[in-house]
Request: fold
Amino acid sequence: MTDSIMSKAATMEIPINSNGDTGTLPEDDSLEQDLQQVMVSGPNLNETSIVSGGYGGTAEEIISTSSIKGPAVRYNPEFNKRIPVTGLGSNMHHSNSSLSLTADEATRGVAVEKLESVRKWGLNTYKCTKQMISERFGRGSRTVDLELEAQIEVLRDTKRKYETVLRLARALTNHFYNMVQTQHALGDTFADLSQKSPELRDEFGYNAETQKLLCKNGETLLGAVNFFVSSINTLVNKTMEDTLMTIKMYENARLEFDAYRTDLEELSMGPRDAVTMARIDAAQQQYQVHKEKYERLRSDVIIKLKFLEENKVKVMHKQLLLFHNAISAYFAGNQQQLEQTLKQFNIKLRPPGADKPSWLEEQ
Reply:
């Protein structure tokens, strides 16, 4: 029946009228009914069998399509591919959620560390401030090293006096520099007048030579004084300042040590229940940590004070000898001794135009 219907559909003619519309055939109604009967009585697609056999062979294998199971697919007409649609969304969602959880945990860990550091800093600041106020009002005890405190006070007093020497030496250098510049200008003026005043040529010439000689010796003395000022500045603002920074760290460590020592003493005087004992153990650990820090910085301060004293004596012995010999030779008018003093201390004078860089250095 099916074959007869299909052959009838394949061989039938479809008339077309003059307007291009298909005409109606008398057999259309019967053909439509036959097709509907085929669709109803036809085989079930879920029960369709696949016959498999080798080429030229007789073996056959019937496979029921209802037993073939697989993931649902989606057909993409652009790429002529079947794309599975089950499992991808859940896997992607799972990986994204895992990444977001990892990022959240890392952020939370960093925040917890910051909060913990802020809490420790606040607790330490509170204890130190409390200890400092107690010491100023005479209600708290402090650890005192009398010998070391005396050495620290001597260093601070020495630094103040050396700063005064440095300030006065700089003032002397500025004034003497202005005097040398004035002598140089005066010598040039005398030399010019000796050329324009024939009746006073000799007198102006003598004075011009004298001012030029004084200017040359003055520049030599300025080199010695500048070296003296530079060495004193290094000693005061670098060597002494470095030692005082270590002393400041030592004093802060001493304050922290006394603050935690006082905290431990107060806890030890209270009741001895389980909570208090746990706090005492924690306070004991903190006390030990700050005690070791205090003793380490105390040892550093003692060593630096010793080396500073030796360095100060060595530097000042050389600089004071230089300053004395240079000043004495200059005001005695002994140019040879003044130059010998600079050679003795390995001081090299800059040429008059050495302050300005050359055109090659500016490029």
